[in-house]
Amino acid sequence: MSIALISDIHGNMTALEAVLEHIKDRGIETILCLGDLVGKGPNSAAAVDRIQEVCEVVLLGNWDDFIQNEHPDEGIKWHQNQLGKERLSYLGTLPFHYDFYMSGKYIRLYHASAKSVHHRVVPMIHSDDEKRAMFDHSEWITPLEEKTPDVIGFGDIHAALIEPMGTEKTLLNVGSVGNPLDTTLATFAILHGEYQSKEVAPFSIEIVRLPYDVEKELKGAAEMGLPYFDQYAMELREAYYRGASKREK
């Protein structure tokens, strides 16, 4: 049995529907979402509704968290108005993490790090100590048992990777469906193995990078009057993030 891990949709329905079609074509029925359904792209409301329809588990992301609060930025208010009270309330119910077994591997998923949805760890630049701390328990985590996970899956940084941590541990970033910044292709991960099984069995991780119609997405965004459109277009067309932007990543 295989399961799909998606993250960081950010209101990009063109990319999300392409990914969901690919997942369906491969016969994968279980989809887990690691958060950041909303913001940046034009269709936060549609993304929330669609993710609720198709995902077995939906976790809290940093955008999903802060967008629930009052914010002076008019761009954030634009997304909040689109979402409405009911969807914003739904985002407030999302759990911090999800722990499960697969082929005997103890796996933990969360959005950014064990410390917070707002604490970013970038494995390419942070220390080994910071990366090892990703496997720790924290006040936000209720573990299945008091052992450390074998695999940590996270999103947030919009750059997919699989990094062994010693001989037994693996750090997995599942990439971004709607706002990848290491490629212009919608990105997600697939875990292959026996879902919800403690029995040791074959297990593997696959990173999928999928082309989609970027210009269709941007045409719709422009027609909707998306705030910070030029930044959004740059990110989708060039996988480039201008750090001086007023918005959160």
Molecular structure report:
The structure is a single chain. The chain has one domain (2-238): Purple Acid Phosphatase, chain A, domain 2. Helices cover 29% and strands 20% of the residues. It has helices spanning 13-25, 44-54, 62-66, 74-91, 128-133, 214-223, 229-238, and strands spanning 2-6, 30-33, 57-58, 97-102, 105-110, 151-154, 161-165, 169-173, 186-192, 204-210. The strands form 2 sheets. It has a 5-stranded mixed sheet. A 5-stranded mixed sheet has the order 4-5-6-8-7, with no helix packed on it. Mean pLDDT is 95; it is low at 243-249.
**Rg, please?**
17 Å
Task: Please report the distance between the alpha carbons of the first and last residues.
Answer: 33 Å
Question: Taking strands numbered 1, 2, ... along the chain, how are they ordered across the largest sheet?
Answer: 3-2-1-9-10
* The number of domains: 1
- The CATH class label is Alpha Beta
For the record, what is the CATH homologous superfamily label?
Metallo-dependent phosphatases
Secondary structure: elements and pairs:
Layout: E1 2-6, H1 13-25, E2 30-33, H2 44-54, E3 57-58, H3 62-66, H4 74-91, E4 97-102, E5 105-110, H5 128-133, E6 151-154, E7 161-165, E8 169-173, E9 186-192, E10 204-210, H6 214-223, H7 229-238
Parallel strand pairs: 1-2, 2-3, 5-6, 6-8
Antiparallel strand pairs: 1-9, 4-5, 7-8, 9-10
